[in-house]
Amino acid sequence: MRYWLMKSEPDVFSFDDLVAKGEAEWDGVRNHAAQLNMKAMAVGDRALFYHSNIGLEAVGIMQISRTAEQDSTDETGKWKAVLVKPVEKLAHPVTLKAIKADPALAGMEMIRQSRLSVSPVTDAEYARILEMAKG
Predict the structure, then answer these.
(1) Cα end-to-end distance, the chain, whole Å
(2) 76-122 confidence digits (pLDDT tens)
(3) 105: closest CA among 121, 85, 81, 91?
(4) Which of 6, 33, 79, 93 has its CA 20 to 30 A from that of 41?
């Protein structure tokens, strides 16, 4: 199993929206590096759901439930999307400020490439964020 961090603006699509839907297509990703990450995802992989722009925090865990296929919002046929389903809401959101302040997370891809909407997370980074979410 691999781990990922996937960003969404909560006023567009939040973790609570995902919970309400039960499963959703992670569509609209129009960045080549993010697309490569999505194409590398396997069913069962876990992803941190990160609220970008508003909140700036990891708020939940989701699971990849379908590998990359045609993005239903792309009329060109060029872009892919995965399906995700909620696993659990984090007990305490982990803020970007807290992530940046933790030396164990200094090498996170989301810190190095802050505009990347879908990025890999190492096993150690994932475990550390879950530890931080316990409060």
Answers:
(1) 25
(2) 999 999 999 999 999 999 999 999 999 999 999 999 998 899 999 99
(3) 121
(4) 93
The amino acid sitting at 2 is R
- pLDDT surpasses 90 at 129: yes
> Domain spanning 3-133: which superfamily?
ph1033 like domains (3.10.590.10)
Give the C-alpha separation, 91 to 68, whole Å. Answer: 29
CA dist 27 → 59, 72, 98 (Å): 19, 7, 28
pTM here is 0.96
Which residues have CB under 8 Å from 112's CB, separation 6+? none
